[in-house]
Amino acid sequence: MADRIAAFGGCLVVNRPLDKLTAELANANYLEVVAAPDFEEGAVAILSRRKNLRIIRLEKIGDLAKYRGLSFVEFKALTDGGLIVQQSQKNAIRTKADFLEGKTIFKGKEYKIERMPTDSEYDDMLFGWNVEQGITSNSVIYVKDGVTVGIGTGEQDRVGVAEIAIFKAYTKYADALCFKQFGMPYKTIELEANQGKRDKGALQEVDKQTKKDKGGLIGSTMVSDAFFPFRDGVDVGLKEGIAAIVQPGGSDRDFDSITACNEANPKVTMVFTGQRVFKH
């Protein structure tokens, strides 16, 4: 239920043998590809009930870990016949010990994050920063309990992309609530309500709950591919109840972002990576 909307016609890839229960759950969604290193007896038969589904066995998917520390080169063609060559960067953050403490010195005064991350927050920070490696700049994402809550990507400004990710989180959260309660997408129920086929009260309740829950963003971790030049980007996340922030750090005004986190109630934790993710 992380993203029912974008998952339509998507691809499910797992790095362990796919069991029958997972196969049944996969069949409940419209997927075009399901890939796994192996399949439990009976799982392929279940998946085969879906028309036009490509079932792929990737026996060496575990070997991908061998290439984690290597770079690859991307080539992109331009309309004028030119080429852009970009080498992928290596993720410097492998464990929670690789994160840098959220602190800086401004005009001789030290500014420091007052609350350290919990173990579960560190888990989401690691997960989020790894996801961030493959997202087009400029980007801001929100993650919670090992799941992406909202993804904003490819924008020109950091505040705007943080707000886009929140809009997506609210949209997807409302859709998930509708599916859980009514077994139908939000847009379908909205269309029926506008046509007079359904009472609008159902949608109003979903909207009310989504607003109350802040689109599932409460307690989430905000991840930015570049530093926040001002605290306004951080404030966007704080208004939604985030609990933690991951960002490269290195801005002249890091002290503003640190102050914003310390002023929040409850206090928000933040770590630096010392590394920008840059992908176009």
Write up this protein:
The protein has eight helices and 13 strands. The chain is 32% helix and 20% strand. Helix 4 (158-182) crosses helix 6 and helix 4 packs parallel to helix 7 (232-238). With 280 residues, it is α/β, with parallel strands linked by helices. It folds into two domains: 10-67, AICAR transformylase, duplication domain (Cytidine Deaminase, domain 2), CATH 3.40.140; 93-272, Cytidine Deaminase, domain 2 (3-Layer(aba) Sandwich), CATH 3.40.140. The longest helix is centred in the middle third of the chain and has 25 residues, at 158-182.
- Strand count, sense and closure of the main sheet? 6 strands, mixed
Order of helical and strand elements:
EHEHEEEEEEHEEHHHEHEHE
Helix percent band = 25-40%
* General shape: globular
Mean pLDDT: 93
Taking Cα atoms only, what radius of gyration do you get, to the nearest Å? 21 Å
Number of beta-strand segments: 13
**CATH fold group of the largest domain:** Cytidine Deaminase, domain 2
What name goes with the CATH superfamily of the largest domain? AICAR transformylase, duplication domain
Strand fraction? 15-25%
Helix tally? 8
Low-confidence stretches: none
- Class by SSE composition: alpha/beta
Distance between the termini: 29 Å
User: How are strands sequenced across the largest beta sheet?
Assistant: 6-13-12-11-9-10
Which architecture of the largest domain would the CATH scheme give at its second level? 3-Layer(aba) Sandwich
Q: What is the CATH domain class of the largest domain?
A: Alpha Beta
